[in-house]
């Protein structure tokens, strides 16, 4: 399955290596990048207990002086307190501008490590070693880093690209089923926004709800095509001045649902799944795409074991209010990414509140 995908950017291009069983060769990869010899691994207790020793040994055997920062697991810890802990350990171990922070974990760890690297000494090296499907196909690529504010997701952050991304699909064998399904939401997103043929491949698969139910060829396709789609979009628009916003398909309402449930009841991919269902129905109500396309999308979302309904107890007006503090708001108007066909979307701020309200009520 081994393959390399290039993220081509004007300032700093880098490689994504997808290769099974390569976690213990990270040190060799980094040795070729001519980085400084100090490295700080940032991880959480669960992932570090499974894979920390391999990564630590690999880096040390390639001549790196390695320190570690283990942060609590979960979106609720994606805040400035955690960033301060990374800074404290960076200071204690005298990390320099040539040093490297290594994110070993899912999207939360990757986002925080990237933000710490972007801001420590005004920017040091940073490497992504994603361990969840969602991080592999989405958050580890493209340089979006940051933390949450109590009132909204990812409101504090920076665009800061990694030097390298290493994806070892074998680590998915220890990923909980719920996390695998959450990652599939981002995979389905690429089919809707970018690649109709890829969507059709997922549509043809009898199961998408667990690693054990997906054949190795489809897993390889999922990783390669998702990473390539992300690399293609980011290569055209690194800092979301235009087309990159389409990567937020499903995220507008998804983020609101996540933040209103305190980042505990609904995890990120589950929010994206719900957000895609809402966006599809909004597009249908606006006459932008068809009931048939909506049904096809929702069938694949259900096949991935994801919900198509809002969690109980959520207030619709609170969701509509939360949309106003989304990062994509421009001149006070909420921008939605809405599908026009399978494989294509458009960006619009012309979505009446009564249509949003109607769709959300139907999803209760």
Automatic annotation (TrEMBL):
GO terms for biological process: amino acid biosynthetic process; aromatic amino acid family biosynthetic process; chorismate biosynthetic process. Residues 183-329 form the 3-dehydroquinate synthase C-terminal domain. This is 3-dehydroquinate synthase. GO terms for molecular function: 3-dehydroquinate synthase activity; metal ion binding; nucleotide binding. The gene is aroB. Its cofactor is NAD(+); Co(2+); Zn(2+). Residues 69-181 form the 3-dehydroquinate synthase N-terminal domain. Zn(2+) binds at residues 186, 251, 268. CDD domains: DHQS. Binds 1 divalent metal cation per subunit. Can use either Co(2+) or Zn(2+). Keywords: Amino-acid biosynthesis, Aromatic amino acid biosynthesis, Cobalt, Cytoplasm, Lyase, Metal-binding, NAD, Nucleotide-binding, Zinc. Catalyzes the conversion of 3-deoxy-D-arabino-heptulosonate 7-phosphate (DAHP) to dehydroquinate (DHQ). It is an enzyme of class 4 (lyase). Its EC number is 4.2.3.4.
């Amino acid at each position: 399955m081994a393959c390399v995908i290039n993220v081509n950017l004007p300032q700093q291009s880098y490689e994504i290596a997808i290769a099974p069983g390569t976690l213990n060769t990270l040190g060799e990869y980094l040795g070729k990048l001519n980085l400084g010899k100090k490295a700080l691994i940032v991880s959480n207790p669960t992932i570090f207990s499974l894979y920390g020793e391999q990564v630590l040994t690999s880096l040390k055997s390639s001549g790196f002086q390695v320190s570690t920062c283990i942060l609590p697991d979960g979106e609720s810890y994606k805040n400035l307190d955690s960033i301060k802990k990374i800074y404290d350990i960076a200071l204690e171990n005298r990390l320099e501008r040539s040093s490297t922070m290594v994110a070993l974990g899912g999207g939360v760890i990757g986002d925080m490590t990237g933000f710490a690297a972007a801001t420590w000494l005004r920017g040091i090296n940073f490497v992504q070693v994603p361990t969840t499907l969602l991080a592999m196909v989405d958050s580890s690529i493209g340089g979006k880093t940051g933390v949450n504010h109590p009132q909204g997701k990812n409101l504090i952050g920076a665009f800061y690209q990694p030097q390298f991304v290493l994806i070892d699909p074998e680590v998915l064998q220890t990923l909980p089923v719920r996390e695998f399904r959450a990652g599939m939401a981002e995979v389905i997103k690429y089919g809707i926004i970018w690649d109709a043929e890829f969507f059709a491949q997922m549509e043809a698969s009898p199961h998408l709800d667990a690693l054990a139910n997906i054949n190795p060829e489809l897993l390889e396709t999922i990783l390669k095509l998702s990473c390539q789609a992300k690399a293609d979009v980011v290569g055209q628009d690194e800092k979301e001045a235009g087309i990159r916003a389409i990567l937020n398909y499903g995220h507008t309402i998804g983020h609101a649902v996540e933040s209103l449930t305190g980042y505990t009841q609904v995890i990120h991919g589950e929010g994206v799944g719900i957000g895609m269902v809402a966006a599809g129905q909004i597009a249908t109500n606006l006459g932008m795409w068809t009931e048939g396309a909506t049904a096809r999308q929702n069938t694949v979302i259900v096949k991935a074991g994801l919900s198509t309904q809002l969690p109980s107890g959520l207030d619709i007006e609170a969701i509509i209010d939360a949309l106003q503090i989304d990062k994509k708001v421009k001149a006070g108007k909420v921008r939605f990414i809405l599908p026009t066909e399978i494989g294509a979307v458009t960006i619009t701020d012309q979505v009446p509140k009564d249509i949003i309200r109607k769709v959300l009520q139907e999803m209760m």
